[in-house]
Predict the structure of Sigma 54-interacting transcriptional regulator.
Amino acid sequence: MSQFSPFFNRWLSRIGPDQVVAILTELVDAGAVFAVDADGKVLFWSKGAEKLFGQTADMVLGKSCAEALGCDQGQDPCGLAELGSIKAQSVQVKRLSGGRLTCQRTARAFFDAQGQFAGALEFLHPQVSAETLVGKQGNSESFHGILSRDPAMLEAIKIIRNVAETEATVLIRGESGTGKELVARALHQESPRRHRPFLAINCAALSPNLLESELFGHVKGAFTGAVRNHAGLFTRAHGGTLFLDEVAELPLELQAKLLRVLQEQSFIPVGGDSAISVDVRIIAATHRSLREEVKAGRFREDLMYRLRVVPVFLPPLRERRLDVNLLLWHQINLHNLHGKRHVDSIAPEAMRRLLDHAWPGNVRELINVVEYAFAVGRGNELRLDDLPPEFREPKPLAAFDAVPTISRTRNKHEAELIRDALKMANGNLEAAASYAGMSRVTFWRKRKKYNIEGYD
Ligand SMILES: Nc1ncnc2c1ncn2[C@@H]1O[C@H](COP(=O)(O)OP(=O)(O)OP(=O)(O)O)[C@@H](O)[C@H]1O
Protein backbone atom coordinates (compact mmCIF):
# COMPACT_ATOMS: atom_id res chain seq x y z
CA MET A 1 0.00 0.00 0.00
CA SER A 2 1.24 3.48 -0.81
CA GLN A 3 2.21 5.62 2.16
CA PHE A 4 0.57 8.60 0.54
CA SER A 5 -3.08 9.46 0.30
CA PRO A 6 -4.21 10.25 -3.27
CA PHE A 7 -4.64 13.84 -2.02
CA PHE A 8 -1.12 14.19 -0.74
CA ASN A 9 0.32 15.78 -3.90
CA ARG A 10 -2.45 18.34 -4.04
CA TRP A 11 -1.96 19.17 -0.35
CA LEU A 12 1.79 19.38 -0.90
CA SER A 13 1.50 21.86 -3.74
CA ARG A 14 -0.96 23.98 -1.71
CA ILE A 15 1.39 24.30 1.22
CA GLY A 16 4.57 24.28 -0.84
CA PRO A 17 7.03 21.36 -0.78
CA ASP A 18 9.85 23.60 0.54
CA GLN A 19 7.71 24.57 3.55
CA VAL A 20 6.84 20.96 4.23
CA VAL A 21 10.47 19.84 4.07
CA ALA A 22 11.58 22.69 6.33
CA ILE A 23 8.91 21.94 8.95
CA LEU A 24 9.36 18.21 8.73
CA THR A 25 13.07 18.55 9.37
CA GLU A 26 12.41 20.87 12.30
CA LEU A 27 10.36 18.10 13.84
CA VAL A 28 13.46 15.90 13.78
CA ASP A 29 14.84 17.00 17.09
CA ALA A 30 18.58 17.26 17.79
CA GLY A 31 19.53 16.33 14.26
CA ALA A 32 20.74 17.95 11.06
CA VAL A 33 19.10 17.30 7.71
CA PHE A 34 20.52 18.44 4.39
CA ALA A 35 20.11 17.68 0.71
CA VAL A 36 22.78 17.68 -1.99
CA ASP A 37 22.63 17.62 -5.76
CA ALA A 38 24.43 15.21 -8.08
CA ASP A 39 27.71 17.15 -7.59
CA GLY A 40 27.43 17.01 -3.81
CA LYS A 41 26.52 20.74 -3.58
CA VAL A 42 24.27 21.63 -0.66
CA LEU A 43 20.70 22.46 -1.80
CA PHE A 44 18.98 22.47 1.57
CA TRP A 45 20.34 22.99 5.09
CA SER A 46 17.89 22.51 7.97
CA LYS A 47 17.56 24.66 11.09
CA GLY A 48 18.85 21.64 13.02
CA ALA A 49 21.99 21.65 10.85
CA GLU A 50 22.49 25.35 11.62
CA LYS A 51 22.18 24.63 15.32
CA LEU A 52 24.37 21.56 15.31
CA PHE A 53 27.23 22.77 13.13
CA GLY A 54 26.98 26.49 13.83
CA GLN A 55 26.84 27.39 10.11
CA THR A 56 23.80 29.16 8.71
CA ALA A 57 22.16 28.08 5.45
CA ASP A 58 23.55 31.26 3.77
CA MET A 59 27.05 30.09 4.55
CA VAL A 60 26.77 26.62 3.07
CA LEU A 61 24.17 26.61 0.30
CA GLY A 62 25.95 25.92 -2.99
CA LYS A 63 29.11 24.67 -1.30
CA SER A 64 30.16 21.04 -1.52
CA CYS A 65 28.94 19.09 1.50
CA ALA A 66 32.47 17.84 2.19
CA GLU A 67 33.55 21.49 2.54
CA ALA A 68 30.52 22.43 4.60
CA LEU A 69 30.98 19.56 7.00
CA GLY A 70 34.75 19.49 6.89
CA CYS A 71 34.71 15.72 6.38
CA ASP A 72 38.17 14.27 6.20
CA GLN A 73 37.44 10.92 4.78
CA GLY A 74 39.49 11.04 1.61
CA GLN A 75 38.51 11.26 -2.03
CA ASP A 76 35.12 9.62 -1.85
CA PRO A 77 33.88 10.63 1.58
CA CYS A 78 30.55 8.95 1.25
CA GLY A 79 30.61 6.13 -1.23
CA LEU A 80 26.91 7.01 -1.20
CA ALA A 81 26.46 7.07 -4.98
CA GLU A 82 27.74 3.52 -5.04
CA LEU A 83 26.03 2.18 -1.93
CA GLY A 84 22.65 3.84 -2.41
CA SER A 85 22.10 4.14 1.32
CA ILE A 86 24.11 4.43 4.52
CA LYS A 87 22.80 3.62 7.98
CA ALA A 88 24.21 4.76 11.34
CA GLN A 89 27.75 5.43 10.08
CA SER A 90 30.02 7.19 12.51
CA VAL A 91 31.55 10.38 10.99
CA GLN A 92 33.51 13.34 12.29
CA VAL A 93 32.37 16.81 11.26
CA LYS A 94 33.76 20.24 12.06
CA ARG A 95 31.90 22.88 14.04
CA LEU A 96 32.21 26.55 13.24
CA SER A 97 32.98 27.21 16.89
CA GLY A 98 35.97 24.91 16.57
CA GLY A 99 36.52 21.30 17.41
CA ARG A 100 35.04 18.25 15.82
CA LEU A 101 31.83 16.45 16.52
CA THR A 102 31.19 12.75 16.12
CA CYS A 103 27.86 12.11 14.45
CA GLN A 104 25.82 9.16 13.32
CA ARG A 105 25.05 9.55 9.65
CA THR A 106 22.14 8.06 7.76
CA ALA A 107 21.78 8.91 4.10
CA ARG A 108 19.84 7.93 1.05
CA ALA A 109 20.85 8.52 -2.58
CA PHE A 110 18.50 9.28 -5.46
CA PHE A 111 18.98 8.06 -9.00
CA ASP A 112 17.40 9.40 -12.19
CA ALA A 113 15.61 7.36 -14.87
CA GLN A 114 18.98 6.51 -16.43
CA GLY A 115 20.28 5.19 -13.13
CA GLN A 116 22.62 8.17 -12.66
CA PHE A 117 23.28 9.54 -9.17
CA ALA A 118 20.95 12.54 -8.77
CA GLY A 119 21.68 13.71 -5.24
CA ALA A 120 20.95 12.63 -1.71
CA LEU A 121 19.19 13.38 1.54
CA GLU A 122 21.22 13.05 4.73
CA PHE A 123 20.46 13.01 8.42
CA LEU A 124 23.15 13.47 11.06
CA HIS A 125 22.73 13.46 14.78
CA PRO A 126 25.36 13.80 17.47
CA GLN A 127 26.74 10.56 18.78
CA VAL A 128 27.08 11.14 22.46
CA SER A 129 30.07 9.41 23.91
CA ALA A 130 29.50 6.46 26.17
CA GLU A 131 31.15 8.41 28.96
CA THR A 132 28.61 11.23 28.69
CA LEU A 133 25.74 8.81 28.46
CA VAL A 134 26.64 6.56 31.32
CA GLY A 135 27.60 9.60 33.34
CA LYS A 136 28.23 8.51 36.84
CA GLN A 137 28.99 4.96 35.86
CA GLY A 138 32.69 5.62 35.39
CA ASN A 139 34.81 3.02 33.64
CA SER A 140 32.17 1.48 31.41
CA GLU A 141 32.78 -0.63 28.35
CA SER A 142 31.28 0.54 25.09
CA PHE A 143 31.94 -1.07 21.77
CA HIS A 144 30.03 0.22 18.72
CA GLY A 145 27.09 1.09 20.97
CA ILE A 146 27.24 -2.16 22.95
CA LEU A 147 27.43 -1.25 26.62
CA SER A 148 28.40 -3.90 29.08
CA ARG A 149 30.37 -4.70 32.19
CA ASP A 150 29.37 -8.30 32.32
CA PRO A 151 32.33 -10.71 32.03
CA ALA A 152 30.48 -13.02 29.61
CA MET A 153 29.49 -10.07 27.39
CA LEU A 154 33.02 -8.66 27.50
CA GLU A 155 34.28 -12.08 26.43
CA ALA A 156 31.81 -12.04 23.52
CA ILE A 157 33.05 -8.57 22.53
CA LYS A 158 36.64 -9.80 22.66
CA ILE A 159 35.80 -12.66 20.30
CA ILE A 160 34.03 -10.27 17.93
CA ARG A 161 37.01 -7.91 17.91
CA ASN A 162 39.39 -10.75 17.09
CA VAL A 163 37.24 -12.45 14.53
CA ALA A 164 36.18 -9.29 12.68
CA GLU A 165 39.39 -9.12 10.65
CA THR A 166 38.89 -12.66 9.38
CA GLU A 167 36.24 -14.01 7.03
CA ALA A 168 34.94 -16.59 9.52
CA THR A 169 31.21 -17.21 9.70
CA VAL A 170 29.85 -16.24 13.10
CA LEU A 171 26.80 -17.66 14.86
CA ILE A 172 25.36 -15.48 17.61
CA ARG A 173 23.13 -17.19 20.14
CA GLY A 174 20.96 -15.28 22.58
CA GLU A 175 17.38 -14.59 23.58
CA SER A 176 15.35 -11.97 21.81
CA GLY A 177 16.50 -8.44 22.69
CA THR A 178 19.94 -9.44 23.99
CA GLY A 179 21.66 -7.43 21.25
CA LYS A 180 22.34 -10.00 18.54
CA GLU A 181 21.79 -7.55 15.68
CA LEU A 182 23.79 -4.86 17.48
CA VAL A 183 26.67 -7.30 17.83
CA ALA A 184 26.41 -8.33 14.18
CA ARG A 185 26.58 -4.66 13.13
CA ALA A 186 29.59 -4.13 15.38
CA LEU A 187 31.33 -7.06 13.78
CA HIS A 188 30.65 -5.64 10.33
CA GLN A 189 31.90 -2.18 11.39
CA GLU A 190 35.12 -3.70 12.72
CA SER A 191 35.69 -5.78 9.59
CA PRO A 192 37.40 -4.75 6.35
CA ARG A 193 33.91 -4.88 4.81
CA ARG A 194 32.75 -1.85 6.81
CA HIS A 195 32.46 0.37 3.71
CA ARG A 196 30.20 -2.12 1.97
CA PRO A 197 26.55 -2.86 2.82
CA PHE A 198 25.32 -4.53 5.97
CA LEU A 199 21.94 -6.11 5.28
CA ALA A 200 19.74 -7.99 7.70
CA ILE A 201 16.77 -10.31 7.40
CA ASN A 202 14.66 -12.16 9.94
CA CYS A 203 14.17 -15.69 8.60
CA ALA A 204 11.13 -16.22 10.84
CA ALA A 205 9.27 -13.22 9.48
CA LEU A 206 8.54 -14.35 5.91
CA SER A 207 6.84 -17.29 4.22
CA PRO A 208 9.29 -19.79 2.59
CA ASN A 209 8.57 -18.50 -0.94
CA LEU A 210 8.97 -14.86 -0.04
CA LEU A 211 12.09 -15.61 1.95
CA GLU A 212 13.69 -17.41 -0.98
CA SER A 213 12.91 -14.53 -3.30
CA GLU A 214 14.14 -11.98 -0.73
CA LEU A 215 17.41 -13.83 -0.18
CA PHE A 216 18.26 -14.99 -3.68
CA GLY A 217 16.14 -12.70 -5.87
CA HIS A 218 14.00 -13.78 -8.79
CA VAL A 219 13.92 -13.31 -12.54
CA LYS A 220 11.07 -11.75 -14.43
CA GLY A 221 8.28 -14.27 -14.99
CA ALA A 222 9.49 -16.68 -12.29
CA PHE A 223 6.01 -16.67 -10.77
CA THR A 224 2.76 -14.74 -11.11
CA GLY A 225 3.50 -11.20 -10.07
CA ALA A 226 7.23 -11.38 -10.89
CA VAL A 227 6.96 -8.55 -13.40
CA ARG A 228 10.63 -7.61 -13.30
CA ASN A 229 13.97 -9.01 -12.17
CA HIS A 230 14.50 -8.62 -8.44
CA ALA A 231 17.97 -8.56 -6.92
CA GLY A 232 17.98 -10.52 -3.66
CA LEU A 233 19.84 -9.69 -0.48
CA PHE A 234 22.84 -11.82 -1.44
CA THR A 235 23.33 -9.74 -4.58
CA ARG A 236 22.78 -6.44 -2.79
CA ALA A 237 25.12 -7.38 0.05
CA HIS A 238 27.96 -8.19 -2.39
CA GLY A 239 31.26 -7.26 -0.77
CA GLY A 240 29.54 -6.75 2.58
CA THR A 241 27.80 -8.69 5.31
CA LEU A 242 24.43 -10.42 5.45
CA PHE A 243 22.89 -10.93 8.89
CA LEU A 244 20.48 -13.89 9.02
CA ASP A 245 18.44 -13.51 12.19
CA GLU A 246 16.49 -16.52 13.52
CA VAL A 247 18.39 -18.78 11.13
CA ALA A 248 16.96 -21.91 12.83
CA GLU A 249 13.61 -21.04 11.24
CA LEU A 250 15.02 -21.36 7.71
CA PRO A 251 13.02 -24.06 5.85
CA LEU A 252 15.02 -27.19 4.93
CA GLU A 253 14.93 -26.50 1.17
CA LEU A 254 16.43 -23.04 1.71
CA GLN A 255 19.03 -24.49 4.06
CA ALA A 256 20.37 -26.47 1.07
CA LYS A 257 20.55 -23.31 -1.01
CA LEU A 258 22.30 -21.40 1.78
CA LEU A 259 24.81 -24.20 2.19
CA ARG A 260 25.62 -23.91 -1.49
CA VAL A 261 26.29 -20.17 -1.23
CA LEU A 262 28.55 -20.78 1.74
CA GLN A 263 30.47 -23.51 -0.07
CA GLU A 264 30.59 -22.15 -3.60
CA GLN A 265 29.86 -18.42 -3.21
CA SER A 266 27.20 -18.72 -5.89
CA PHE A 267 23.46 -19.30 -6.23
CA ILE A 268 20.70 -19.38 -8.81
CA PRO A 269 17.88 -16.80 -8.42
CA VAL A 270 14.31 -18.10 -8.32
CA GLY A 271 13.29 -18.99 -11.88
CA GLY A 272 16.83 -18.32 -13.17
CA ASP A 273 19.05 -20.67 -15.11
CA SER A 274 22.53 -19.41 -14.40
CA ALA A 275 24.47 -19.01 -11.18
CA ILE A 276 25.45 -15.62 -9.78
CA SER A 277 28.74 -15.35 -7.91
CA VAL A 278 28.83 -13.29 -4.75
CA ASP A 279 31.23 -12.38 -2.00
CA VAL A 280 29.17 -12.05 1.18
CA ARG A 281 30.10 -12.69 4.78
CA ILE A 282 27.35 -14.40 6.72
CA ILE A 283 26.60 -13.66 10.35
CA ALA A 284 23.73 -15.79 11.64
CA ALA A 285 21.79 -15.58 14.88
CA THR A 286 19.35 -17.77 16.73
CA HIS A 287 17.65 -18.00 20.09
CA ARG A 288 17.51 -21.80 19.76
CA SER A 289 20.23 -24.39 20.09
CA LEU A 290 21.11 -25.44 16.53
CA ARG A 291 22.37 -28.77 17.94
CA GLU A 292 18.90 -29.49 19.30
CA GLU A 293 17.37 -28.48 15.97
CA VAL A 294 19.74 -30.88 14.19
CA LYS A 295 18.78 -33.67 16.63
CA ALA A 296 15.10 -32.99 15.94
CA GLY A 297 15.75 -33.26 12.19
CA ARG A 298 14.81 -29.63 11.54
CA PHE A 299 18.26 -28.33 10.71
CA ARG A 300 21.01 -29.69 8.47
CA GLU A 301 24.06 -30.74 10.41
CA ASP A 302 26.47 -29.74 7.61
CA LEU A 303 24.96 -26.25 7.55
CA MET A 304 25.20 -25.96 11.33
CA TYR A 305 28.96 -26.63 11.16
CA ARG A 306 29.34 -24.11 8.34
CA LEU A 307 27.47 -21.42 10.31
CA ARG A 308 28.94 -21.92 13.75
CA VAL A 309 32.61 -21.66 12.81
CA VAL A 310 32.81 -19.07 15.58
CA PRO A 311 29.95 -19.31 18.09
CA VAL A 312 29.23 -16.27 20.26
CA PHE A 313 26.85 -16.44 23.21
CA LEU A 314 25.03 -13.39 24.56
CA PRO A 315 23.69 -14.02 28.09
CA PRO A 316 20.17 -12.89 28.98
CA LEU A 317 19.88 -9.62 30.88
CA ARG A 318 18.64 -11.33 34.07
CA GLU A 319 22.08 -12.92 34.30
CA ARG A 320 23.82 -9.56 33.87
CA ARG A 321 22.80 -7.55 36.88
CA LEU A 322 25.77 -5.25 36.46
CA ASP A 323 24.43 -4.35 33.04
CA VAL A 324 20.91 -3.58 34.24
CA ASN A 325 22.21 -0.57 36.11
CA LEU A 326 24.56 0.50 33.35
CA LEU A 327 21.88 0.26 30.66
CA LEU A 328 19.28 1.95 32.83
CA TRP A 329 21.48 4.99 33.31
CA HIS A 330 22.45 4.97 29.66
CA GLN A 331 18.79 5.15 28.67
CA ILE A 332 17.97 7.69 31.39
CA ASN A 333 20.78 9.95 30.25
CA LEU A 334 19.59 9.67 26.66
CA HIS A 335 16.13 10.85 27.73
CA ASN A 336 17.67 13.51 29.97
CA LEU A 337 19.48 14.90 26.91
CA HIS A 338 16.41 15.23 24.77
CA GLY A 339 13.35 15.40 26.99
CA LYS A 340 11.83 17.82 29.47
CA ARG A 341 12.22 15.56 32.50
CA HIS A 342 15.62 15.19 34.10
CA VAL A 343 16.11 12.10 36.26
CA ASP A 344 19.13 12.06 38.53
CA SER A 345 18.23 9.31 40.98
CA ILE A 346 16.25 6.10 41.19
CA ALA A 347 14.18 5.41 44.32
CA PRO A 348 15.56 2.35 46.17
CA GLU A 349 12.27 0.42 45.89
CA ALA A 350 12.16 1.05 42.13
CA MET A 351 15.81 0.05 41.79
CA ARG A 352 15.21 -3.16 43.71
CA ARG A 353 12.34 -4.11 41.43
CA LEU A 354 14.36 -3.28 38.36
CA LEU A 355 17.29 -5.40 39.54
CA ASP A 356 14.99 -8.29 40.50
CA HIS A 357 13.01 -8.28 37.28
CA ALA A 358 13.42 -11.32 34.99
CA TRP A 359 13.62 -9.14 31.83
CA PRO A 360 12.07 -11.65 29.41
CA GLY A 361 12.43 -9.06 26.64
CA ASN A 362 16.01 -8.29 27.67
CA VAL A 363 17.54 -4.94 26.66
CA ARG A 364 14.67 -4.10 24.33
CA GLU A 365 12.31 -4.38 27.31
CA LEU A 366 14.57 -2.23 29.47
CA ILE A 367 14.58 0.49 26.81
CA ASN A 368 10.78 0.43 26.78
CA VAL A 369 10.56 0.53 30.57
CA VAL A 370 12.66 3.72 30.70
CA GLU A 371 10.60 5.23 27.92
CA TYR A 372 7.45 4.40 29.89
CA ALA A 373 8.91 5.97 33.04
CA PHE A 374 9.71 9.20 31.18
CA ALA A 375 6.25 9.24 29.61
CA VAL A 376 4.24 8.76 32.79
CA GLY A 377 6.48 10.06 35.58
CA ARG A 378 7.52 13.51 36.73
CA GLY A 379 10.30 14.86 38.91
CA ASN A 380 13.99 14.20 39.33
CA GLU A 381 13.61 10.83 40.97
CA LEU A 382 12.51 7.76 39.07
CA ARG A 383 9.98 6.15 41.40
CA LEU A 384 8.23 2.82 41.63
CA ASP A 385 5.02 4.49 40.40
CA ASP A 386 6.81 5.43 37.18
CA LEU A 387 7.39 1.79 36.27
CA PRO A 388 4.96 -0.34 34.23
CA PRO A 389 2.29 -2.24 36.23
CA GLU A 390 4.18 -5.56 36.30
CA PHE A 391 6.87 -3.91 38.44
CA ARG A 392 4.37 -2.58 40.93
CA GLU A 393 2.42 -5.78 41.56
CA PRO A 394 3.48 -7.48 44.79
CA LYS A 395 5.73 -10.42 44.01
CA PRO A 396 4.39 -13.89 44.93
CA LEU A 397 6.54 -15.47 47.58
CA ALA A 398 8.39 -18.61 46.51
CA ALA A 399 6.64 -21.78 47.74
CA PHE A 400 9.75 -23.18 49.38
CA ASP A 401 10.49 -19.97 51.21
CA ALA A 402 8.91 -20.91 54.56
CA VAL A 403 6.78 -17.79 55.12
CA PRO A 404 9.56 -15.20 54.95
CA THR A 405 8.53 -11.90 56.40
CA ILE A 406 8.39 -9.03 53.96
CA SER A 407 11.09 -7.23 55.83
CA ARG A 408 13.39 -10.25 55.60
CA THR A 409 12.90 -10.42 51.85
CA ARG A 410 13.38 -6.69 51.55
CA ASN A 411 16.50 -6.77 53.69
CA LYS A 412 17.97 -9.48 51.52
CA HIS A 413 17.36 -7.45 48.36
CA GLU A 414 18.63 -4.28 49.95
CA ALA A 415 21.82 -5.93 51.15
CA GLU A 416 22.39 -7.41 47.69
CA LEU A 417 21.74 -4.06 46.09
CA ILE A 418 24.32 -2.42 48.31
CA ARG A 419 26.89 -5.14 47.64
CA ASP A 420 26.31 -4.89 43.87
CA ALA A 421 26.54 -1.11 43.95
CA LEU A 422 29.82 -1.18 45.87
CA LYS A 423 31.21 -3.73 43.45
CA MET A 424 30.22 -1.66 40.43
CA ALA A 425 31.67 1.49 41.92
CA ASN A 426 34.88 -0.25 42.98
CA GLY A 427 34.19 0.80 46.53
CA ASN A 428 33.63 4.49 45.77
CA LEU A 429 30.84 5.39 48.19
CA GLU A 430 29.55 8.38 46.28
CA ALA A 431 29.19 6.43 43.04
CA ALA A 432 27.83 3.35 44.83
CA ALA A 433 25.13 5.42 46.53
CA SER A 434 24.11 6.83 43.19
CA TYR A 435 23.97 3.34 41.61
CA ALA A 436 21.70 2.22 44.43
CA GLY A 437 19.56 5.31 44.02
CA MET A 438 20.21 6.44 47.62
CA SER A 439 21.68 9.51 49.21
CA ARG A 440 25.24 9.09 50.46
CA VAL A 441 24.08 9.16 54.09
CA THR A 442 21.31 6.58 53.60
CA PHE A 443 23.73 4.35 51.71
CA TRP A 444 26.31 4.60 54.50
CA ARG A 445 23.63 3.87 57.14
CA LYS A 446 22.27 0.82 55.31
CA ARG A 447 25.73 -0.50 54.71
CA LYS A 448 26.35 -0.37 58.45
CA LYS A 449 22.96 -1.97 59.15
CA TYR A 450 23.76 -4.98 56.95
CA ASN A 451 27.33 -5.09 58.14
CA ILE A 452 28.75 -4.91 54.63
CA GLU A 453 32.48 -4.48 54.82
CA GLY A 454 35.28 -4.05 52.34
CA TYR A 455 35.70 -2.04 49.16
CA ASP A 456 37.19 0.88 51.08
N1 LIG B 1 24.58 -4.14 25.36
C1 LIG B 1 23.78 -3.23 24.80
N2 LIG B 1 24.07 -1.92 24.92
C2 LIG B 1 23.25 -0.99 24.39
N3 LIG B 1 22.12 -1.26 23.72
C3 LIG B 1 21.79 -2.55 23.56
C4 LIG B 1 22.60 -3.60 24.09
N4 LIG B 1 22.03 -4.78 23.76
C5 LIG B 1 20.91 -4.50 23.07
N5 LIG B 1 20.76 -3.16 22.94
C6 LIG B 1 19.63 -2.48 22.28
O1 LIG B 1 18.49 -3.29 22.53
C7 LIG B 1 17.64 -3.37 21.40
C8 LIG B 1 17.50 -4.82 20.95
O2 LIG B 1 18.76 -5.26 20.44
P1 LIG B 1 18.87 -6.20 19.14
O3 LIG B 1 17.81 -5.86 18.14
O4 LIG B 1 20.28 -6.18 18.68
O5 LIG B 1 18.49 -7.59 19.83
P2 LIG B 1 18.30 -9.01 19.14
O6 LIG B 1 18.91 -10.00 20.05
O7 LIG B 1 18.80 -8.98 17.71
O8 LIG B 1 16.72 -9.16 19.18
P3 LIG B 1 15.77 -10.06 18.22
O9 LIG B 1 16.30 -11.46 18.29
O10 LIG B 1 14.42 -9.93 18.88
O11 LIG B 1 15.82 -9.45 16.87
C9 LIG B 1 18.29 -2.47 20.34
O12 LIG B 1 17.70 -1.20 20.44
C10 LIG B 1 19.75 -2.43 20.76
O13 LIG B 1 20.36 -1.23 20.33
Summary: Confidence is low (pLDDT under 50) at residues 129-140, 396-409. Residues 151-313 form a domain with the Rossmann fold fold (CATH 3.40.50.300). Residues 145-148, 174, 176-182, 245, 327, 363-364, 367 surround adenosine-5'-triphosphate (CB under 6 Å).
